[in-house]
Amino acid sequence: MKPISEPIFTSGFPLGSSAGLVAAFEWLGQPYRLTRVDMLGEMREAPYKRLNGRVETPVLITDEGRVLTETMAIALWLEARDTERRISFEPGTPEADRMHQYIAFLNTGFTGAFFSMWVALEADDASEEERETLRKFGRSFVAKRHEQLEAMIGDSPYLLGDKPTLADAVFAGVARWVEFHKAIDPRDYPRILALRQRIEADPAFRFAVAIEDGKPAIGSGAMKGLVPLEDVLRDTGAALAA
Ligand SMILES: N[C@@H](CCC(=O)N[C@@H](CS)C(=O)NCC(=O)O)C(=O)O
Known about the structure:
InterPro entries: Glutathione-S-Trfase_C-like, Glutathione-S-Trfase_C_sf, Glutathione_S-Trfase, Glutathione_S-Trfase_N, GST_C, Thioredoxin-like_sf
Largest sheet: 5 strands, mixed
CATH class of the largest domain: Alpha Beta
CATH architecture of the largest domain: 3-Layer(aba) Sandwich
Strand order of the largest sheet: 4-3-1-2-5
Helix content: 40-55%
CATH superfamily of the largest domain: Glutaredoxin
Structural class: alpha/beta
Keywords: Transferase
GO molecular function, one term: transferase activity
Bound molecules: glutathione
Number of strands: 5
Number of helices: 11
Distance between the termini: 7 Å
Protein name: Glutathione S-transferase
């Protein structure tokens, strides 16, 4: 497999959870590239399905040309490269364990709570009554996970202290779904709201959202270019076939 110059990460739109890990790439500061993925369009076509058979973002093409899927796997890949510990902690320390605990909770319970809201939106064959049932359960799942996260958050500005880590990145990519689905009233969870506002005002996250929206964006300089998805699919397809 041909080595490539920088890892390439997906920016899924609209509202992809990948925006959080794009911010993490920015905070990490090591060279990377991005490819925008229309999750309502090209993601559902055959070439993308060869990249990720589960038809999801995020996907990372590593600097060795390997395809890595799943948020947690990509977060761990970033952690392994974060030798300066800008967005993570020394493996084996209590802080690292707690960061993994947060990431696991956020990527499973917290993210999964929105599932029935997405189904209500996307299921073509659902009746309005079925959609309302899905939304009703979705609102209660999202509220429960917000209550739990609100209780987990301490007094520090970020989830694990005074600087953002991979846990904050995974959180921020998903937490903004609340407004889109009108799932809960964010003001009922003041710690979560304050954390969101802090991260969403951060230049790294603003950069991620601008890329997602296809708008001009100035980042930290670590992002070395946008690669058209068709180029990524062509190159990885060739590598996978080789
Ligand atoms: N288990 C996956 C889930 C990722 C996920 O839920 N991705 C969403 C976008 S944020 C997706 O691609 N959904 C497919 C769809 O919308 O049809 C992970 O953690 O990476």
